[in-house]
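[User]
If only I could read backbone structure tokens as easily as an amino acid sequence. I have put the entry right below:
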Amino acid sequence: MPTQKDRNSSSTSLFLVIKLLNPLLHHFLNLLFYFFILCLGVVVGIIVHSSLEASFLPYYPTVQSISQLVLVTSPPPPTSSPLPQNYEIEMFLRPPKINIMHNMEDNELFWRASMDPKIPTRPRYISSSPYPFSRTPKVAFMFLTRGPLPLSPLWERFFRGYEGLFTIYIHTNPSYKESMPQGSVFHGRRIPSKASF
């Protein structure tokens, strides 16, 4: 039969165990509370991010507008002559002359201009260039003017001898209708613009 001394000893040891575990339990509950707050913050952040992303997405044309754009700007169907074996590379190196006049809205034009070319890259140990052919980089020149291009003879002289190394774009006032002579580097390079106030 346990004596009073044994009972006091067991209650004292139980009291000591509770006294030792109380700070650990308190620390564990604190840690559990902070972990819960962290998880709640992550969930709220994901929900807010997805709702903001849906409301502030930039303009991406729909499939219908892209198909209409392709129908409007697509060239006539090609004849049934066989294509050369490296047709895609030839089209990239020497693209056909296109009339840059178009009827696209600004958002559609920006979307098309921002699309990256899908050129397959090769491993660096095979070639230092990611292109499957040698290429010459081009420089783009954009002229913003209200009427005729100032100093156009000087620019003609500047571009002489460097054909194929540059692309020219001219933005003029929509009311300006005059065109450049046929032999000029500026001929057919005008891009339509709208008046903005």
Q: What stands out?
A: The mean pLDDT is 72. The longest helix spans residues 4-55. The CA atoms of residues 22 and 28 lie 10 Å apart. Strands lie at 139-144, 166-171, 190-191.
